[in-house]
Please model this.
Amino acid sequence: MPPMNRDLLINAIADALAAIGIEPDGAIELERPAQRDHGDWSTNIALATAKGAARNPRELAADLVESLEAASLDGVAKVELAGPGFVNFYLENASIHDIVRHVVDAGDSFGSADIGGGLRVNVEFVSANPTGPLHAGHARGACFGDTVARLLSHIGYEVTREFYINDRGVQMQTFADSLAARKAGQEPPEGGYRGQYIVDWAAAMPDDADPFEWGYARALDDQRSVLASLGIVFDRWFSERSMIETGAIEAALSALAERGVTYEADGARWLASTRFGDDKDRVLVRSNGEYTYLAPDIAYHRDKFSRADRLINVLGADHHGYVVRMKAAMEALGEDPAHLDMPITQLVKLMRDGEEVKISKREGDLIELAEIVEEIGVDATRFTYLLQSVSSPQTFDLALASSRAMDNPVYYVQMAHARMAGIVRNATEVGTERLPLADVDLSPLVHERELEVMRQLATFDEIVVLAASEHLPHRVTTWLREFAAAVHGFYHDCYVVGEGIEPELTQARLWLVEASTIGLRVGLGLLGVSAPEEMR
RNA sequence: GCGCCCGUAGCUCAACCGGAUAGAGCACCUGCCUUCUAAGCAGGAUGUUGUGGGUUCGAGUCCCGCCGGGCGCGCCA
Model:
């Protein structure tokens, strides 16, 4: 990064502090002020160290400013004392211009970093039972998990997307029995699956098919295809059943036993999870000899740890109770529980024109994810699910998300991209050729709209790192909305080609257009949303 | 009863590690198309951040207590 880089400024601040004999107790914090007139960067170091140094914060800050001014920092136009003791930095336009070269050089790797250093991250998400189509309740976790995977990959992790298939146990058998019953023209058994899709699938099932295997394959195909339509492709579909064959479950149970963290009681085998922070011990093998759900899940996580350095397991709100016991189980196996992250996605309430839409339609039938995608489109589906922090409950208005109007944020952002593309088309049509960036002087970019676009671009790197490492994809969505606003403003007030615009300005602006295009394209791409050339 | 998440403008939501005057969009009102898409731009109004304490230079953010909502608390998954 260019001289706007925080590390350089932090070093300068450290030097200036040393020069006035102050030793900071912690790291020097540098933040981007919320308000424009507080400059481009700001540090609270004087406030933070004043107490330890037994100094008045404002006086200390004044000394710091003086010391910084004496150092006459490259690219910094002004250093100012403000408020109770903040020190604000104002950059010269020339250092703001550098972001354009940075973005253009980076291209599609704009915002990428090497934080991960090739560390292997396994992201498990969706993991729905293979007993029917994916429904609306799966959508948020699907969009979230995939986007977290994209983000981590962008900052240098080696990412595997994984789907765990619960393909054994009572649920599957009930599903198979329900299919068989419908095939025979009968009602599903007591407690069976009663959805319309069972009737439809049974009708499509060949007479000689095994309902269990056929239904399993049908459900997987169905889930796989709707996910693919959303741009979500898993690297691995991990079968629970396969662990019976490989003996992985028994191996995991033995490993726990060897570590002395299991015991027998009441005819069952227990995991002493309370030793690792759980509020009660958990049964692994029931007194009838069957595994609880936990045993294969532990074996599965153990397997993932053998293949990856960090695990992420995206869960729905109704499974949050699972977090502590799985971490306990991993710790019991000698893994570092901090290497297992289990983000919880809170529930989504669906609305249409202000009225709540119930996720369950008829008995056994839920609103399918495919229906949502069909109604509002892939881009709007992903963008809308990624609009907010998943730790908050979400209200999702289908009518709003499907509207092509300006009240739909996804089109607002895409429109900004289409407009940039339109400028390039227009330039080509009138025969204006863009010169190589190395030959273009960016100093004509002094309009407040232009500066705002560049300032926003300069924040992207840190937003991506934050969004990826804290699993906060909505930070990218928010950035895109703000950036798009800056781009629309620039578009409106700064004509790029046309009469009365100096050729030098046109050249500089064409490169700002290019940088903006990259910013929008990369940001949208991280969310899995397309960046259209036109929106007609 | 215990645990997790949430409570911010009329509505939907932001707010990086505790920072300066809590921000956007929608809805409402007013302007702007004779050069690149008006799916846009500009301006206006909107707040006891559920509530009561505490911590400190500074709290929407951290701690404690209440109120309200969601989800869990099985030898189900």
Observations:
- The two ends of chain A are 37 Å apart (CA to CA).
